[in-house]
Amino acid sequence: MTEATKAAAEQSAPAAGAPAAAAPRDRAQPAAGRGAALRVEGAGISFGGFQAVRGIDLDIPAGEFLCLLGPSGCGKSTLLSAMAGFVQVSKGSLTADGATVSGPGPGIGMVFQNSEVLFDWMTVHQNVTFGPRMRGLGRAEQNRVADEFLGLVGLRHCADRYPGQLSGGMRQRVQIARVLANEPSVVLMDEPFGALDAQTRQVLQQETDRIWRASGCTVVFVTHDIDEAILLADRVAVMTAGPAASIKSLYTVELPRPRDASDPAALRLRDKLRQDIAEEVRKAMQDQGLDQDTEAAAGTTAGQDAVRLDQEARSA
């Protein structure tokens, strides 16, 4: 584990005496009508003279599952880091439950792309009880929390194992359980299945949908995968190409859960999302002075996105 990821994990643990969240509830219905768990108004994020994102406006209701989708390098993870409090907005505002996000806190949990944030010298049980222990909960309550959330992710039988003894998919589920054990109202997920094989990824997508509906929390999920966004999200926010990326379009996914990727409505939405992203990739390539059909373009991030989207279009 790097020092940065260790610090992020420790900072995100709830402070002692923090109030517990409401009991888990079924979240099968849309979040319409609920108050905003996260509100982003005119937000911009800059690093020195580089503007990563600008003019971001998002109201994310409590209990919603929102996916951020866009070309490589468009600032999705940067925006997610601002929501987590790891970086600050340079312009505009970002609030969680009405309070300005000024740093990591107990109400917002983060699931990273890899499992480096797990403490490899601790057992699975000890990893999951880390947050409750920092909150000052007694041993019996720590054990209850670990049992509840390891059960939720299907890993009670692995409680005494160490992260190094688990598969990649199992480690990601431990990471999800550890975040949920802190009882956050908002869970941020930064391409959590990006490094996994296709079969494991599909299983964890289904598990994430089930866990989210059972937990009742708000989720903001970063992905490059259009199908993943359709399968998981209440809404999909498509970002423009960076730098100075913004929200290009916002789609409501009006499909029953669990979802079928072959549903005609899902296929129509897939085409719209693919067209939006392809348009942004082409713009990015034009800004770089590249031609989509050249071998040089295929060697760039934007070119790789364009080639992949073109291949998908031909095979559809």
TrEMBL record:
<feature type="compositionally biased region" description="Low complexity">
    <location>
        <begin position="7"/>
        <end position="34"/>
    </location>
</feature>
<dbReference type="InterPro" id="IPR003593">
    <property type="entry name" value="AAA+_ATPase"/>
</dbReference>
<dbReference type="InterPro" id="IPR050166">
    <property type="entry name" value="ABC_transporter_ATP-bind"/>
</dbReference>
<dbReference type="InterPro" id="IPR027417">
    <property type="entry name" value="P-loop_NTPase"/>
</dbReference>
<protein>
    <recommendedName>
        <fullName>ABC transporter domain-containing protein</fullName>
    </recommendedName>
</protein>
<dbReference type="InterPro" id="IPR003439">
    <property type="entry name" value="ABC_transporter-like_ATP-bd"/>
</dbReference>
<feature type="compositionally biased region" description="Basic and acidic residues">
    <location>
        <begin position="307"/>
        <end position="316"/>
    </location>
</feature>
<feature type="region of interest" description="Disordered">
    <location>
        <begin position="1"/>
        <end position="34"/>
    </location>
</feature>
<dbReference type="InterPro" id="IPR017871">
    <property type="entry name" value="ABC_transporter-like_CS"/>
</dbReference>
<dbReference type="GO" id="GO:0005524">
    <property type="term" value="F:ATP binding"/>
</dbReference>
<dbReference type="Pfam" id="PF00005">
    <property type="entry name" value="ABC_tran"/>
</dbReference>
<keyword id="KW-0067">ATP-binding</keyword>
<keyword id="KW-0547">Nucleotide-binding</keyword>
<feature type="domain" description="ABC transporter">
    <location>
        <begin position="38"/>
        <end position="266"/>
    </location>
</feature>
<feature type="region of interest" description="Disordered">
    <location>
        <begin position="284"/>
        <end position="316"/>
    </location>
</feature>
<keyword id="KW-0813">Transport</keyword>
<dbReference type="GO" id="GO:0016887">
    <property type="term" value="F:ATP hydrolysis activity"/>
</dbReference>
